[in-house]
From TrEMBL:
Keyword Cell membrane: yes
Family: Belongs to the ABC-2 integral membrane protein family.
GO cellular component: plasma membrane
GO biological process, one term: lipopolysaccharide transport
Subcellular location per the Swiss-Prot or TrEMBL entry: Cell membrane
InterPro entries tied to this protein: ABC2_TM
Superkingdom: Bacteria
Primary location recorded for the protein, binned into one broad class: membrane
Pfam families assigned: ABC2_membrane
The UniProt record lists the keyword Transmembrane: yes
Membrane topology: Multi-pass membrane protein
Protein name per UniProt: ABC transporter
Keywords: Cell membrane, Membrane, Polysaccharide transport, Sugar transport, Transmembrane, Transmembrane helix, Transport
Amino acid sequence: MITYNSASARPSLAEFVSAAKLWRVWLHMGLQDVKSRFRSSALGPAWILINLAAVIGAVGLIYGRLFHQPMNEFLPFLTLGIVIWTFISSSLVEGSMAFIAAEGYIKQFPFPKTIYLYRAIVPYTIVFAIGLVVFFVCMALYKRPVGPGALWAVPGFILFVIINFFHIVIVAHVGVRFRDLPHLLGSLIQIAFYLTPVIFTGTMLKERGLDFVYMFNPLYYLIEIVRYPLLNSDAPPMEVVYVALGYCVVAGIIATLVVRKMSQRIVYVL
């Protein structure tokens, strides 16, 4: 077993690698987190699929007509937008509780603390995968083809997961020290939702001279790095790739600084 003195050691790249090798542990924990949400439920995690399909159906029908959008284009767009946004918002809001939720484990077991950061991202990935099922059903219902170019979403999703892992690293460390962080982030995410092309397209904003709303919004590029290939079966525009890569570098640097500054104090603060 890999041992780790979480009270005194400062995590480095080696510790993150060591924690990644314990994938059976954090994967099991993450799966149990999903199951615990639906304990004693007859349908279990299937409620994720049902709730997502209901929300997308209701919102899609209303906003599709409100924005005068063809449903065969708008509904798949909306589906991916909501699914990807849920991943982003969860990594920021729920991710800030990653260490707090694992307080008992941290104090009792010699695992690297970073294992609980990997654990946190498992439920978000499962919800995303279920959301993709809804998306492909939408595409099939409207007989929209998904070509080989959609595979560009794979490297896009890998980059997307890395960025959101950096989100979790940052907010999990800060959240231990500032317990109001989840509430603050929840409020900011609600505001950001209405400033990001999730339920409306970038074209709508551009036609009204509001393209600056998404052009200077980094979350738009995080969504498009995955959504564009799946919708268009083509590689995302290079400006989307460049901004997403740049955002990844900045988030990685901030995550590194936060870990170096705050990691040693986590056990004492908990």
